[in-house]
Known about the structure:
single chain; alpha+beta; six-stranded mixed β-sheet; disordered C terminus
Amino acid sequence: MTVRVELPPSIPKQARVASGARAYAGCRRVSMSADEYERFDGRVECWEARSQTANVLREPLGFQHEYSSRRLVVLVHTIGLTRGAVIASAGSVDIVQRDSEGRRELVLRADEAIFLNPDRDRPAGLYVEVGSDPLPDVVLEVDYSTDVRRGRRGRAGKLDDYAAWGLPEVWVEVPDSARTAGSRRPGLTIFLHRGSGYVEAPGSRAFPGWTAVEIHRALNEIEDSPETLAALRRVGRAMAAAEAGPSAGGTFSEE
Length: 255
């Protein structure tokens, strides 16, 4: 499946998302000024300056939603140890698009943002600034009571906005105990950016050899199974080999 966001010719790809009142599935749209956004202590999926509105989760953050995000931090840390290089987890960092005068125009908040090479590719300030900062190599969205693939009332979903910015890889995790906005089955879907949209892939491009099935299993475990530990070490070795050069080993094919 390809999720496409066609950008007007005057807007550079991977630079801007068009303004408009968003209505994400599983969220309620509320009026919110910039100052109110700064002070708000609930979960905001996106904030828009033009409409002075935010999409706020209908349900409070619960154990399963937060557990999946925190599990990913532990998993990629283990991969980094085998790889021999740190992998940074930035948490629910704000990804910010600014207008021509430098004011925040649109803010999206990911559940987890991963940077493979934080020594050189990381935000310069508090936020990930679209157009000036390196984008996260992987963004995780946990659809416990939401659905980032679609919006309400026929509007674009959060995944469409990520596509317009050109985020290279998005993982959408539906936990085993999830109550989603649609008839979604538990599982993890990997979206790789190509052209103006995303294509589904069986495995990660950022973490070569790590499959969607393996990632989902690992995110839902209380402790690492022997299968998960073996997969983490395999992926770490594959990343180290790929970075050492073509002669050191192969990489995962997403086809």
